[in-house]
Amino acid sequence: xxxxxxxxxxxxxxxxxxxxxxxxxxxxxxxxxxxxxxxxxxxxxxxxxxxxxxxxxxxxxxxxxxxxxxxxxxxxxxxxxxxxxxxxxxxxxxxxxxxxxxxxxxxxxxxxxxxxxxxxxxxxxxxxxxxxxxxxxxxxxxxxxxxxxxxxxxxxxxxxxxxxxxxxxxxxxxxxxxxxxxxxxxxxxxxxxxxxxxxxxxxxxxxxxxxxxxxxxxxxxxxxxxxxxxxxxxxxxxxxxxxxxxxxxxxxxxxxxxxxxxxxxxxxxxxxxxxxxxxxxxxxxxxxxxxxxxxxxxxxxxxxxxxxxxxxxxxxxxxx
Length: 320
What we know:
Blueprint: H1 2-7, E1 11-13, H2 18-25, E2 39-45, H3 51-67, E3 70-78, E4 87-97, E5 104-115, H4 122-129, E6 136-141, H5 153-158, E7 161-164, E8 184-186, H6 187-191, H7 193-203, H8 208-212, E9 215-223, H9 227-243, E10 252-258, E11 263-270, E12 276-282, E13 287-293, E14 299-303, H10 310-319
Parallel strand pairs: 2-3, 2-6, 3-5, 6-7, 7-8, 9-10
Antiparallel strand pairs: 1-4, 4-5, 9-11, 11-12, 12-13, 13-14
Helix pairs in contact: 3-10
């Protein structure tokens, strides 16, 4: 994927000259403390990444790094098996003013392009690029075959969190034997945080018995492109019902795509037709309508409805 590496910003430097490159880059930076980092993040672009997508994820990472100064190592593999052994490097740095003139934060990106033949040297090169004694986080983006990640065991085992986005990875990602399953986070699930918070707050006004008694069907309808988020939301609903003592074997769960911009909805169907709960959202307008009558009278509520911004989803997945 040399086209991905070439599309990303940065100044070309010799692989052995990355440290000297940053020294020159920061020569005019007044405060050394402003370049202190809090963590390491490895952003690994998989086979299905195209230049425009790589630039978008680079931008999200840059915004994340404004909040949490970090050393970012971006891996851009070249899958051409005939290419000779080669590792190329670029560096990118940027500083941002905070809430006061003295609050300046700087971030550093190291971008590495490597061929299949040079893969055996990558671990040492990445280790050199990381800031020592700082926690490591690994984001594998748009990989085509989850089994190929086994080649990067040193990242899978050392990382405090392993991130992927179920909207853009193979379905068997969920069944892959991750070395540390508790460290794995799905960005699609993280994006639904504002929806889960609003749903949880509304439903918390009812006792579990009121919600569970007579519940026969749970239906989520969503715009086609929100399939991963819909699946994550359904999983969250199922877990909540199990924790509250519901017999989920007696409940039908359904996820249905619909042709509607921004559409997202959750509906509970009951044996007693007098009972109801619905949440109908238009994510394109940051708007949702709640309506419920679970035996204590009808309640309605208007609330916002949106996904978490990508840079906030990164921080939520890493730290919570």
